[in-house]
């Protein structure tokens, strides 16, 4: 396991803490990389990380606790507990929210979520207004579609039914009883001892992530914790300290899409699994439970160049003697380094050699990623050259035109950006990204005039 993670670290594919436990006892627990690159502070086994969407299973637990105390029923309409509930939500039940079968659109999939909406401070009602009036994507209970909006609403329901602020409820009813003393809810201003910083990548370099505003978090994300505390959580799920066995069985029952209440239920290596991932603000997390073997893998990381899920699955493979592959250098990283040192022409020659050798990552999509990293770094001429080179090699890569449009917009050339988006739509009239990009540019033009 250490050899696997050291190989990942060597290729900038892991920074964080990994824990593998059997019967509640760690068989492997190690930290890698930096909690703070600015201050040269390394990660340790006690480092505190944002666990992002792993928060959802704690929200689900709160709902089940409140049900057992007679405060609500999962069959209740959510409108029983929500103010200004639109008519379209009246048939949505709490269970629909728990299982992502409500049809409520996912707020984090809205246009401009990353660039603006997630950073905007406001009241909770204003945040709910972002999706309150949107039509349901399907009739409640009909399908599965992951929705952060739904779990935000569950956070509101916990507060209404319990009469407590969501963070205080979690501390009083879950964290404190389990001795999860390094776990809590982050509001972006709290001083959290031992907390890691989240990092995004720009090519092969790291930049500090921009955290989403705390007003956009509730039951969907926001918890901070450690691998040790999450192991306490894992162990509590084998007993009835928090809720009854009946409620736990219900939590781990797969509904549409294999999703229970805050857990993805499935199998791996021929063994039953319960798992969930999280990704937010430069953090990546994953908890993977094999309940029949009493084995759990917990990965908490603070860099977007790593996949906590991939690391957890491979450590589990090592634990069970299943096949796995050591992390290898990525072509994307090599191209970035060549562009930085020698320019785009040598970088594309390197790409072409990899393609001739049938490298699996020598794809047009990978070139798009390099191009957008260059836009982010304000290396716009190189970005344009990469997008054009991608179009030469992959003529059907319509999104390269979107890249050229975004690059033109970044340099303030609105007319050129509109032209590239129009070319993109001629190729693919259903390209939603180009449709929205074009509308935004034309709207900005009208506002300016």
Topology of helices and strands:
Elements: H1 2-10, E1 16-22, E2 25-32, E3 34-36, E4 41-42, E5 49-50, H2 55-68, H3 94-98, H4 124-132, H5 148-162, H6 166-178, E6 184-185, E7 199-202, E8 205-208, E9 223-225, H7 227-236, H8 245-251, E10 264-268, E11 271-280, E12 283-290, E13 295-301, H9 308-320, H10 331-342, H11 344-356, H12 364-376, H13 380-393, H14 399-410, H15 414-427, H16 432-448
Antiparallel strand pairs: 1-2, 1-13, 3-4, 5-9, 6-9, 7-8, 10-11, 11-12, 12-13
Helix pairs in contact: 2-5, 2-6, 10-11, 12-13, 12-14, 13-14, 14-15, 15-16
What does this structure look like?
It is a single chain. It is globular and about 65 Å long. Helices cover 42% and strands 14% of the residues. The termini are far apart. Helix 10 (331-342) packs antiparallel against helix 11 (344-356) and helix 12 runs parallel beside helix 14 (399-410). The chain has a six-stranded antiparallel β-sheet with strand order 2-1-13-12-11-10, with helices on both faces. The protein has a three-stranded antiparallel β-sheet with strand order 5-9-6. The chain has 449 residues and is of the alpha+beta class. The chain folds into two domains: 2-320, Beta-lactamase, CATH 3.40.710.10; 331-448, Serine Threonine Protein Phosphatase 5, Tetratricopeptide repeat (Alpha Horseshoe), CATH 1.25.40.
The largest pleated sheet is described as: 6 strands, antiparallel
Mean pLDDT level: 93
Task: Tell me what the CATH architecture of the largest domain is.
Answer: 3-Layer(aba) Sandwich
How is the largest sheet built, in terms of strand order? 2-1-13-12-11-10
CATH homologous superfamily of the largest domain, by name?
DD-peptidase/beta-lactamase superfamily
How far is the N terminus from the C terminus? 61 Å
Strand content: 5-15%
Helix content: 40-55%
Count of structural domains: 2
The ordered H/E elements are HEEEEEHHHHHEEEEHHEEEEHHHHHHHH
